[in-house]
Design a protein that fits this description.
Two copies of one chain form a homodimer. With 911 residues, the first copy, chain A, is α/β, with parallel strands linked by helices. Chain A contains 36 helices and 31 strands. In chain A, the strands form six sheets. In chain A, strands 12-22-21-14-15-16-17-13 form an eight-stranded mixed sheet. The first copy, chain A, has an eight-stranded parallel barrel with strand order 24-25-26-27-28-29-30-31, surrounded by five helices. Residues 552-561 of chain A have low confidence and may be disordered. The interface between A and B is large, with 61 and 61 residues.
Chain lengths: 911, 911
């Protein structure tokens, strides 16, 4: 017996039996066909029809584009069954059955073949139909549509080949709108279109309805490997093996009078999620007319007045469909002479807000579980709710109007509108003193630009990648940021920049979309949600936390019992820490102490400390810094009372605190050449220091624990400040949990050389202050060698925190400062790398190290606290891996905490 | 029963039974004591005596410096046994037994307690001894020595406390030499010395011989934790748990007339290895006199005339000892009134040449196997034979005369004497045009300094580490080189440098010792061995190769059957390849193609190629380079006919071929400030290119395969050149085996993106030339991620070659250019790292990656050829690891090939 290639919409049970699951039915019949059959099964009125399977498509493509054995017979049989249901006959001259043909794969995808309507008409049946309907204009218009669609869609003749002669015809007669054309006009035009087919293809438009049908089916199958479809599948990562189905459905007409109509609708408001029908319809019209916008459509609510019976049916059907699919639906319908027909249903697209509301309402309505609700929200949707966004419509218009004049890496999401300034000082002055909204534009940023960045609404750089300084700081502080916008040519002397022939001067307005990476001229309107007021989001994240904790109880770090994967935050200042806590962070995974060194009143002290000739002079300067650091930590510990706070000791190379070498050399050369002596000697002396601290590859240089071993005074001061602050906070009645993190460890001996002397300071401070509290000493794992020798290192370190930025940098050998600009984005574009490993953890390489390291570290110390504090901590795919590796927490910027909470729940649910 | 703490020299069998092995006996009795007992056992005349064990020492130290139970009784018992043998009585007034006391641990080490002679004398026995010998002067002199030695060695009174009064005494009486002093003088001096002891210690010199003995033994034990001994053990990596033994031996006197004498000798010539007794003796003298050099010693051969009987005994004993120890011996002897006594024997130190000759002679004499012979030569000794060396004596004198004025990292071994020049061009001109011997002195070197380096006899830099550019190039070409000599302050404008207050001007002579890292003023004499003429070395290395191949037959890469670990060489030019082959290399593991780009006539073409705006312009320049590259490869393939040649495609970042950014900025700033316009525009344009290619961390930047993917034209040219050259060579009747190596791979997709198009070029060339030959495409493994995903990568790569320089750099996160200068040497000094990982592979981290990678790579491709081409390929410890990991070959600079051959044999023997 031949295989079954064709399923009537009634045959859905049979299809499900064969496919084994609903997912299988969708694969076999395509999404559209499966849902048509499914609606039929649950008693929703669907015009009779059938689906030719995706397997038939694959068989057709595998055998040199010939229909597989048995297929055509099954089609003819299915047509017979439809004839029986409708009482019409396919190809009949008096009362012909007309059908439409539509493609439909498992996933909806652009580039597949379009719809062909009215299959089954020919010169003879036209006469019969006119007789039957008494409406010659309607019939000839329908026939004209068939010939035109068949020609362009099935026979692939260009649209203009049909449009040109029709336009000429109308012009000759002074006709403008299609509605002005009469039956005779359409008849003439139909004949013209038949000639077009004959001219282009060398054969006549097929009068045999069966041939029309067969050619349509073959054309759908053939379009599976059309260029646009292939490109789309490659880009979206959809398998080329799926194939497409073909849906053949009886035509119903919404243009048969005022008791007819057609429309599209959502079962809930896709913008807000409100539980109301949302959509448009037209009376006495066809689907095309609704979409084309020739006539003004009516809101769906008015249908209740126009056709109360049909409206009631529709409301019932929508309820039924939501009940059945447990999802908000996007539907198409037609009413033919009072009779209601559903032509399509599918899950509806919606805004983040709507998604949230709908998921929660569905739980309230008892339709889905909390787990399902949490899974229905994507991390991107949560993220969108936390940043100012451009108005969707305005964004679209701006693009169409050509206001988008540059683009770059979407480094930190959100919308920012402001005036352009080109240096940190000006940016800060304009913002603070004049209250301007500022967009800071730089080639790249450095630590001493931070004050300007913090004062800005948005940041735009022409260099750097997703983990460049600008990107990291911007994400940290939730500032929208685009980096590596290489089209931009900056002229810092002329104070302007140019991109694609548009020049923007200092003070001009631009709008930066950190979510998409686009830069626009002028001011685009934005909307800004607030976290605390978003009740639905708060509800959903509470559910997420419950799911994450769930039954997956792991023994957590001592003093902080952990269930599942916690979400901590990276925060340097008390205000960040409070925000993080508000957003649901259960600890601070990374407080970077060096940011504290860059503040204006401290930097000169830091520079004198670095340039000190002796340990004594250095200590003298450090003594001045100690109170600053202590007060920084004080606020942090107070804000995080009861929760762990990991403070990382100084990490960057010292030259970052000094002027830039190239600039200094240029300055000195200029002074020398001009014979200027004032201040020259000081600059020359400074140059000697800068040169001696200059490194060819500073990322792999004298920083982190290496610096602490060569120059221990700095970290000794820092540890003293940490413990003095914690002691003070404790004495004020709070509950501090400091954890001291040593960065850049590569060898256990680095820890054994420095940790004991720091622990001694800790004990000393506690003894002097007469107070005790829990604390830990641990290390970053960011050097591959540390990961490879984790068992040794865990014998000394009480916690591990993956610095995945550096770990990725070293494991790949990709300079974070340069790679994205030079080759990394090309790699991602060309598919050499599946994703940018600085945005999402590379499981095979970096992840493998993390997995080994976690397991081996716990061998030496079963209660080892393991987390991640790199930029990846807020990335949902990376969070999945962290869950898989058994980490205790991920730590990310405060603004990502809600996103990470959701992602952690998804990971816990195995999604 | 108390433990046994004391062993008579006769008790060696008992000691061996207890200790379980000869190694155990050496640990128990110390090396000196063990050999004394051993000599006694085989019938060599040794003065009767005993050893107090190292265990006794440890027990003494563990229990608050009290002698363990039973020890003293056992000492007294042993003394009784010695009295019985000698017929003398310890402490007897008439015929006293005198003994010496000497320390002796398992390994000989400086800093332990010195010898005390004549224990057992006191005021009473002096009289008896004078009566017995009739030689009052001898007796009082002996007594004086005891008091002096006991005071300084046992009681730790400073030497000057004894020397000053004696000098005064002699001065008062106008006496100069000790030989001018009479019996009465020595008697007086002895009394003076006793007073010194009383004054310093508050007690009298002990008259009780037992107390003398006990205090001596305790003093030896106590000296185990003396500062010098502890420091030495720390430096030499000797365990502090070993403890020292004490050897008590009957005194024999070589100063009892002309039938007495004393001497030291080697059983073979320690300079040449010749089979002759080699040493000195004095008649009627004590050991001290031989060493002190007061009297002229006689060569040992003359003893045959002076004391034929004793000489014959000595020759027999030497034969017996060599037979017994299978080693050349370093012995001490004394002849007392015609009777021959051996006081010590141990394995003798020797020059590299002697070691070689002795090992081979021992094999010829049937005493040891070839394996043992090979194991007796150290890699350092082989290395010493391949480089010009300073005359040992001259070196010593130069140090003493203060001519050593700076030191640095011993980057490339050998002696170089020349005149100082400060830039590559001058160095080259002076060397080539004036025939001068040149030492090039630079802060550091860059690829465009290579022509000057190649023309120099030696290289000295003030910056950089063991794998800096200067070091790598110098080793590659066997040029002695010191890097990172940070004491040196270079003044390139004044054309001089200063170190430790010594200023060296351009043109001055200096001598550079690349073996030790020392820099000397002036010209030190050198000697230069030649490889081909060193028959012993050739013999030994042939044996080494046989051992390496041995039974350890691994299936090698197809076409090149491998047994054991082969040694290949890194060579860029045909001359290097020929040298490598002469030195025994079995392939070329690394030909760096970019050196070829730096040659003078090519560099401008390379620069134009880099700056080209279009792919066409670039290809035009590359077409000009192709013939150069082809001819480079042609010579290489011809020289290596029948053997594999791995050619690495272009690796460094492009900016290395352009001027340096900082210099260019300085130049332009100066021109601008001075208003100079000529050539300014060109320089400004160049600056734009240099800036656009500038990277913050170039080591992790756009280089290697990344460059090939972004700009494939260069490697396409290179592969064409490789295969055209191989084809030409094949057509001339040679047998080329090219292997194309893609550098810096981190992801399999990098290979799949580039390798197929290169393989296509290979096929294309072979087809056009109408010739076929074997070839491979493979990759460097130098990025940790490549090692972590080896199984995937081996599915495409046909061979792996570890680039351990970069792999170490990335695994540790240590910038090769900076780390040694900034912290790495400090790390090694402080013991944070056991060795510099750029010199010797870090087994725990980098090695672990290599081991995983090799095993997983072979899972995917069992015949995978795996080797190492980093600087570590010539390091013996690293070679051991490579053997352990199952590599097919190590590749090192041609000059290291013999060293590596020996080290490979050692590895094969498990040593």
């Amino acid at each position: 017996m031949a295989e079954k290639w064709v399923y009537l919409f009634d045959d859905v049970d049979q299809a499900e039996k064969k496919a084994g699951s609903w997912e299988g039915v969708r694969a076999l019949l395509g999404g559209k066909g499966a849902n048509l059959a499914d609606m039929t099964r649950i008693g929703v009125p669907v015009p009779p029809g059938f689906t030719v399977t995706t397997e038939a498509c694959n068989a057709f493509l595998a055998h040199d584009k010939t229909l597989p054995d048995g297929l055509w017979d099954q089609v003819l049989e299915a047509i017979k069954a439809v004839e029986k249901k409708t009482g019409k006959v396919f190809g009949d001259a008096k009362n012909p059955l007309l059908v439409s043909s539509r493609s439909g794969a498992k996933f909806s995808m652009p580039g597949m073949m379009d719809t062909v309507l009215n299959l089954g008409m020919n010169d003879k049946s036209v006469e019969g139909m006119i007789e039957l309907t008494g409406d010659a204009r309607f019939v000839y218009d329908s026939y004209r549509r068939l010939v035109q669609m068949f020609g362009s869609v099935v026979l692939e003749i260009t649209d203009t080949a049909f449009e040109e002669p029709m336009d000429e015809y109308k012009e000759e007669r002074g006709l403008k709108l299609d509605t002005e054309l009469e039956a005779e006009d359409w008849k003439t035009i139909t004949e013209m279109f038949k000639k077009v087919i004959k001219k282009h293809k060398g054969f006549e438009f097929p009068q045999d309805p069966n041939e029309q049908l067969r050619l349509s089916i073959e054309a759908v199958f053939g379009s599976w490997f059309g260029k646009r479809a292939v490109d789309y599948r490659n880009a979206a990562g959809i398998s080329h093996d799926l194939g497409t189905g073909v849906n053949i459905m009886t035509m119903v007409f919404g243009n048969m009078g005022d008791d007819s109509g057609t429309g599209v609708a959502f079962t809930r408001d896709p913008a807000t999620g409100e539980r109301v029908l949302y959509g448009d319809y037209l009376l006495n019209a066809q689907g095309e007319d609704v979409v084309a916008g020739i006539r003004n459509t009516k809101p769906i609510a008015e249908l209740e007045k126009d056709l109360p019976e049909a409206y009631k049916t529709f409301v019932d059907i929508c309820g039924k469909l939501e009940e059945h699919y447990k999802e908000m639906q996007d539907v198409e319908f037609t009413i033919e002479r009072g009779k209601f027909w559903m032509l399509q249903t599918r899950d509806g697209k919606r805004t983040a807000n709507a998604a949230m509301r709908i998921a929660i309402d569905f739980v309230d309505e008892g339709m889905i579980s909390k787990e399902e609700a949490v899974l229905r929200i994507t991390p991107d949707q949560v993220d969108a709710l936390l940043h100012p966004q451009y108005d969707h419509q305005a964004l679209q218009s701006a693009r169409e109007e050509g206001k988008r004049f540059a683009s770059g890496v979407n480094a930190s999401p959100g919308a920012a509108v402001g005036r352009v300034y080109f240096d940190a000082d000006t940016a800060e002055t304009k913002a603070k003193e004049e209250g301007q909204d500022v967009i800071m534009v730089r080639p790249f940023t450095k630590p001493d630009d931070v004050h300007g960045m913090l004062a800005s609404k948005g940041i735009l750089t022409s260099e750097g990648g997703a983990t460049s300084h600008a990107a990291v700081v911007a994400r940290q502080f939730g500032i929208p940021c685009i980096v590596g916008a290489s089209e931009i040519k900056l002229d810092l002397k002329k104070r302007n920049f140019t991109a694609n022939d548009i020049t923007v001067k200092e003070g001009d307005w631009i709008s930066v979309d950190g979510t998409t990476g686009e830069v626009f001229l002028g001011q685009l309107p934005t909307t800004m949600p607030s976290f605390e007021e978003q009740e639905e989001l708060l509800t959903l994240l509470t559910w997420a936390d419950e799911i994450t904790a769930g039954d997956d109880v792991r023994e957590g770090p001592k003093g902080f019992p952990t269930k599942g994967l916690q979400v901590w935050a990276n925060a340097d200042y008390p205000a960040d820490a409070r925000r993080a806590r508000d957003y649901g962070a259960q600890g601070i995974g990374l407080c970077r102490t060096e940011h504290m060194f860059f503040e204006q009143e401290r930097l000169p002290i830091v520079q004198r400390m670095i340039l000190a000739d002796s340990s004594e002079d250095r200590t003298k300067e450090l003594d001045k810094l100690l109170p600053f650091q202590r007060s920084d930590f004080d606020g942090l510990f107070e804000a995080m009372t009861g929760l762990p706070v990991i403070v990382r000791l100084i990490d960057p190379p010292l030259h970052e605190f000094l002027p830039e070498l190239v600039e200094l050399v240029e300055e000195i050369a200029t002074m020398r050449a001009k014979g200027e002596t004032k201040g020259l000697k000081e600059k020359e002396e400074l140059l000697v220091s800068v040169q001696s601290l200059h490194e060819s590859n500073p990322m792999m240089g004298l920083r982190g624990v290496r610096l602490s071993i060569v120059m221990p005074e700095i970290v000794e001061m820092q540890v003293r400040a940490i413990f003095e602050a914690a002691a003070d906070v404790k004495l004020r009645g709070f509950d501090p949990h400091p954890e001291v993190m040593i960065p850049l460890t590569g060898h256990i001996n680095e820890l054994t050389a420095i940790q004991p002397r720091l622990e001694e300071i800790a004990s000393d401070v506690m003894e002097k202050k007469g107070v005790e509290f829990e604390y830990k000493f641990g290390t970053m794992i960011e050097i591959p060698r540390a990961a490879l020798t984790a068992e040794e290192i865990a014998s000394v370190a009480e916690f591990f925190s993956y610095g995945t930025n550096d770990l990725t940098q070293m494991t790949f050998g990709y300079s974070r400062d340069d790679a994205e600009r030079n080759f990394l984005l090309t790699y991602v574009e060309q598919g050499i790398l599946p994703v940018n490993p600085f945005q999402s953890i590379d499981g095979d390489g970096v992840g493998r190290l993390m997995e080994m390291c976690t397991a081996e570290g716990r061998k030496a110390r079963p209660e080892l606290e393991v987390g991640i504090c790199g930029e990846h901590g807020g990335d949902p795919d990376s969070i999945k891996l962290c869950h898989k590796y058994g980490l205790n927490y991920v730590s990310c910027s405060p603004f990502r905490v809600p996103v990470a909470r959701l992602a952690a729940a998804h990971a816990a649910l195995g999604k």
